[in-house]
């Protein structure tokens, strides 16, 4: 027999999130006493444990207030498991989709464009050629100080380095 859900997915995710924060806080606290250089200062670990416990307790009370006495433990673990599955989905999404996408954007924006003194961007085609937004190609030249510039319509436009 399926029981009625007495929490939503956001509450389940927060319950999992804060209870895992308590566990990590305890691990960091133990590590701060045993490690030569702690990852997290002791006061931060204690604060993490305290805030996580408080919020976990509040969410537990919220779930228990909506659950009959005989189903409270089962409902709490059910909510925790739903939240855990949501957290796994979020982490997989970030790992498999967002990180490669952000790396692609970063590489495209950093390596392929140069900016001139007036703020206009030019796409770098190769070592000696650039292209503006209208599709016009220019040959990159260097002055006596080895600073790169282009010469559209007879005027020199220098690039920011």
Order of helices and strands: HHHEEEEEEE
Which class do the helix and strand fractions yield? alpha+beta
Number of strands: 7
Query: Mean pLDDT across all residues, rounded?
Result: 86
Number of H/I helices: 3
What oligomeric state do these chains adopt?
single chain
Q: Which range does the strand content fall in?
A: 5-15%
Major sheet size, sense and barrel closure: 4 strands, antiparallel
Shape: elongated
Strand order of the largest sheet: 1-2-3-4
Low-confidence stretches: none
Distance between the termini: 69 Å
Written description of the protein model:
56% of the residues lie in helices and 14% in strands. With 161 residues, it is α+β, with helices and mostly antiparallel strands. Strands 1-2-3-4 form a four-stranded antiparallel beta sheet. Strands 5-6-7 form a three-stranded antiparallel beta sheet, with no helix packed on it.
List the helices and strands and how they pair.
Layout: H1 9-34, H2 42-65, H3 72-111, E1 113-115, E2 121-126, E3 129-131, E4 137-139, E5 141-142, E6 148-150, E7 157-158
Antiparallel strand pairs: 1-2, 2-3, 3-4, 5-6, 6-7
Annotation keywords:
alpha+beta, 3 helices, 56% helix
Short summary:
This protein has 161 residues and is of the alpha+beta class. It has helices spanning 9-34, 42-65, 72-111, and strands at 113-115, 121-126, 129-131, 137-139, 141-142, 148-150, 157-158. The strands form 2 sheets. A 4-stranded antiparallel beta sheet has the order 1-2-3-4.
